[in-house]
Amino acid sequence: MNDFGTVIAPGTVRIERSLPGPIERVWDYLTESGKRASWLASGEMDQRVGGSVELVFHNSELTRNDEPPPAKYAQYAGESRMSGTITACEPPHLLAYTWGKESEVRFELRAQGDRVQLVVTHSRLPDRNTMLSVASGWHVHLGILIDRIEGREPPGFWATHTRLEAEYARRMPAD
């Protein structure tokens, strides 16, 4: 499996990970506010199509031993919020919701023995810069998720995001 996300269509990034199971535990990390807060964002989620999703990010508090965010992300140093609407919900295999007003994120889970294959597809991204930010963001957030499930201390969020965004800029073709 390629660790890096790939562009699978215009404005669409896909990233895959293998996580320790069972699938219900991974589903809980996607849907329960407290567990989701440990790797992405807290917030309520009404798990039904048409239900609301509230994401409350504290990226600067996700990990220890971090750097401050780069200047272009300084506005996200503290709390930031985003809301969306559930577009698909089939526990514990499929969850999709709008990501703000413009894009959509889709999580697909498949049990593979004692592991879970997680596929994250983020679509309707408006431009390359957004795709670079989103791809590196999902990459670091999913790394934190795996570290949390496996009981490891994850590396600093912003330091890792900065390094990954530079690598995605090198790998992702310009328009």
UniProtKB/TrEMBL annotation:
Coiled coil: none annotated. Residues 22-145 form the Activator of Hsp90 ATPase homologue 1/2-like C-terminal domain. Pfam families: AHSA1. Transmembrane segments: none annotated. InterPro entries: ASHA1/2-like_C, START-like_dom_sf. It comes from the Bacteria. This is SRPBCC family protein. It comes from Lysobacter cavernae.
